[in-house]
Automatic annotation (TrEMBL):
This is Flagellar motor protein. It comes from Marinomonas hwangdonensis. Keywords: Cell membrane, Cell projection, Cilium, Flagellum, Membrane, Protein transport, Transmembrane, Transmembrane helix, Transport. It is a multi-pass membrane protein. InterPro entries: MotA-like, MotA_ExbB_proton_chnl. Residues 101-216 form the MotA/TolQ/ExbB proton channel domain. GO terms for biological process: bacterial-type flagellum-dependent swarming motility; chemotaxis; protein transport. It is found in: Cell membrane; Membrane. One of its GO terms (cellular component) is plasma membrane. The chain crosses the membrane at residues 28-49, 149-170, 182-204.
Length: 245
């Protein structure tokens, strides 16, 4: 679990409640279910209008990366490729057949299988590169879905405030109720800004970093496996792969 994400969320929301408390505000005024409904549900609904249920499902699947990020160990990948390169040079490319099942990464195992099957090195490079780009673009579409939610949230917050003010105006004959209603109305704006800038956009930024790391990892695998396929010397291959950091 990524405890940094949890710590960031706790600090961010604690800062809001602390600032409200230091300013003499009541914490209960910041807790408003109707505001949360119109901001969160409204933003998700608006994003669904421009997207599809498949994109929403993929976005939900990748959202878990914010707390349980995938591990792309470049050092371990380099060590694996180096061992495979030495084995292929000592025995043959076909001898790597037994190593495919030991590789748990689907992209790596598919790439190695294509190399062992004798795929032309140039064609192998192009296909693997296209696969890596396709995976990256699919991930980024999921991130764009989440980013759209953050884009709609502030506007929905303003709409919630307008609705709250309309309800507050109905209590013009009661100054106390009017003041309380106006205070609650502006909570929707706070929710819209907070939901976008304290939750969605930071998570989108973190997910983008993980997706870029995945692309770098795939590029490392592509260069390594293609180098093995053409019979590149293991030590030369190791030097080239050390450029990936």
């Amino acid at each position: 679990m990524d405890f940094v994400t949890l710590a960031g969320l706790v600090i961010a929301f604690s800062a809001v409640f602390l600032a409200n408390w230091l300013g003499g505000g009541e914490a209960i005024l910041l807790l408003n279910l109707p505001s949360a409904i119109i901001v969160i549900a409204g933003s998700i609904g608006a994003t669904l209008i421009q997207s599809s249920i498949q994109e929403a499902y993929r976005a939900l699947s990748i959202l878990k990366w914010s707390l349980f990020p995938p591990v792309y160990d470049l050092d371990a990948a380099r060590a694996l490729l180096n061992n495979l390169a030495h084995k292929a040079r000592r025995l043959s490319l076909l001898s790597l057949e037994s190593d495919i099942e030991a590789i748990r990464n689907p992209f790596s195992s598919r790439a190695l299988q294509m190399a062992i099957d004798g795929t032309d090195p140039d064609l192998l490079m192009d296909r693997l590169h296209d696969d890596a780009v396709r995976i990256h673009e699919k991930r980024m579409r999921s991130v764009s879905f989440l980013e759209s939610i953050g884009g709609y949230a502030p506007t929905l917050g303003i709409m919630g405030s307008v609705l709250g003010l309309i309800q507050a105006m109905a209590n013009l004959d009661s100054p106390e109720a009017l003041g309380h209603g106006i205070a609650v109305a502006f909570v929707s704006t706070l929710y819209g800004q907070g939901f976008a800038n304290l939750i969605i956009f930071p998570i989108v930024k973190k997910l983008t970093g993980h997706i870029d790391k995945e692309l770098l990892y795939h590029q490392l695998l592509i260069d390594g496996i293609c180098g093995i396929a053409v019979g590149k010397h293991p030590y030369r291959l190791e030097l080239e792969l050390n450029a990936y950091e």
